[in-house]
Amino acid sequence: MIGIDTVVKQSSLSADTMAISPNGDGIQDKMTLSISATAMESVQDWQLAILAGQERVMEWKGTGKVPQTIIWEGISLTRLPVPDGSYAAIFRAEYPNGDSTEASLGPLIVDRIAPQATVSLSRLIFSPNGDGINDTMRIEQDFSGQGCVYVELGRSGSVF
To answer: Can you give the pTM of this predicted structure?
Structure first.
């Protein structure tokens, strides 16, 4: 039987989150990659790869119907955790008539280091009664060395 296939092939790739911290704490330890392609049931060969630059660090592939989702937990082809950093996902499908389609997604961030925050006060006690003595208190917040926020509180609760 001879078949005619003139359908333009397209695909897309999306994720439920663009950053994961696969440290085993149960919070954002994995990402679900969602795949969509024209005539997914008639795909001959498909492949989804996670890349660090040009290096393939993880890969799923198959023949026939493409899965709608694939879960990545920050694990490499060698089943070891990938280093923290920026990655990209590339999906490719090939069809029996020679057509192919490709979709990419990124950057996908792997970051296992939890952010740190500190708060410091200029004094432990302040008396905003207008007598000019300890009427204000400075509060400083530092976020993992990414920046500081300074606030001074005064008598009426106003912020300077």
So the answer is: 0.72
Whole-angstrom Cα distance, residue 17 to residue 112? 15
Q: Are 152 and 158 in contact (CB under 8 A)?
A: no
DSSP one-letter code for 81: B
> Which residues of the chain, if any, have pLDDT below 50?
160
Q: Which distant-in-sequence residues (6+ apart) come within 8 Å of 141 by Cβ? A: 117, 118, 119, 148, 149, 151
Answer for the pair 82, 57: CB distance below 8 angstroms, yes or no: yes
Whole-angstrom Cα distance, residue 48 to residue 14?
A: 12
Share of the chain above pLDDT 70, in %: 89
Looking at residue 33, what is its pLDDT? Answer: 98
